[in-house]
Amino acid sequence: MKIRVLEVKEKGKVDLLSDPKPESSWCKDGVIRWVNVEHATKDELVDLLDNLNSKGEFIADLITGDNWYDWIEQDDFFVKANAAPTAWFKDEKWYHLVALPETIITIHKSEIPLMGEFIKRWWLDRPGPDHDMNSVMVHVVRTFIDEEAINFYRLRLEIEEHSEGLKQGDKRYTVEHLEALMTKCQHMLTVFYEYQVLAESLEFNLSIPISAESLSTVYRSKANLIKTFREGVEYLKQRLVELHNQHLMDQQGKTESRIRVLTIISAIFMPLTLIAGIYGMNFQNMPELDDTYAYFIVLAVMLTVAITMLGFFYKKGWFK
User: Fold this and answer.
1) I want to staple 111 with a disulfide (CB 3.0 to 4.6 A). Which of 39, 59, 183, 305 is the partner?
2) Quick one: 291 and 144 in the same domain?
3) Does residue 71 fall inside a structural domain?
4) Domains identified in the chain, total number
5) Three-state DSSP class for 106?
6) What is the pLDDT of residue 230?
7) Distance, CA of 148 to CA of 86 (rounded, Å)
8) Are residues 182 and 296 in the same domain?
């Protein structure tokens, strides 16, 4: 199990603790914490949650069971299953967010290679959130959404680059790569949908310590942002389909061009083959065979036929 803990203190100060030992005092020492857990077994999750004075066995069953739970809320905690950002780990479908009094826990089934960069970029290299549970919760979800927004822009640029590469005939850009981008686009659309549902539905019960009326407004504004991104992904999907169809049409056009050239060559050689076949017959009475210039005459006739047919095909536009 890998644990990173961010402690949010007064005046936006944020400290990063690597692999600390969770303690029950965390729930009452006045420090708001975001605990990120990666690659944990069920027993490790139980110990972690029990050390934080929570229902470790019950919550761990929800998270590690065969069926993930979209939303579980009780007086002292809630659990929310969220779509894993495509920018982090392509094979992970879900992560879970657990909110306890003064502690927010995000739990990933696998280790996230880019998590360190994410924490540095969004938490350590800029002022942290205000020192209260609501602000930290907003910051956690908002940074996840913003991270996915960056990945969306990268995907859009990659698609445009791929489009230009196909137009230029660059062999590095293939139909297989295009289809992989379409799959990635579909995955991102699913993730954006899940984030939109989260942002539109996350309203805390005002009777528990982690509640705030302002959260609804904040999350709904992010939901509108995600909706815009989803519409953008839909546009990218349509563009990918157009590029895919255009590429197939280009390939079909090249194939038809080659077949047309072969057809012209075959058509020209058919009469020439006929003439050669006639004069290749072994008959005794073929007057032309005794003529001194017969060979040159036949060659001239064959050349004339070939040039005439080439001219005819050119005039008809078969070479365009």
Assistant:
1) 39
2) no
3) yes
4) 2
5) strand
6) 63
7) 7
8) no
Contacts 24+ apart (CB under 8 A), 47-56: 48/1, 48/3, 48/22, 48/105, 49/98, 49/105, 51/21, 51/22, 51/23, 51/24, 52/22, 52/24, 52/26, 52/27, 52/100, 52/103, 53/24, 53/27, 54/98, 54/100
Using CA atoms, how far apart are residues 23 and 102, in angstroms rounded to an integer?
13
8 Å CB contact between 144 and 150: no
Contacts of residue 171, Cβ cutoff 8 Å, sequence gap at least 6: none
Looking at the structure, tell me whether residues 240 and 298 fall in a common domain.
Answer: no
State pTM to two decimals. Answer: 0.60
Token representation of residue 294: 């017969």
Q: Give the tens place of pLDDT for each residue, 104-156.
A: 999 998 888 889 999 999 999 988 888 888 778 878 877 887 887 787 778 77
In this structure, what token pair is assigned to residue 48?
């972690």
Domain final position from 192, 225, 248: 248
Q: Which amino acid is at 88?
A: W
Q: What one-character DSSP code corresponds to residue 79?
A: E
Handedness of CA 160, 165, 167, 171 (dihedral sign): negative
* Residue 103: exposure state from Cβ atoms within 10 A (0-12, 13-18, ≥19): buried
Domain around 84: 2-248
- Say how many CA atoms lie within 13 Å of 10 toward its Cβ: 1
Distance between CA 312 and CA 162 in Å, rounded?
Answer: 41
Cβ of 244: how many Cβ atoms within 10 Å?
A: 16
38: in domain: yes
CA distance 183 to 194: 17
Judge whether 143 lies within some domain.
Answer: yes
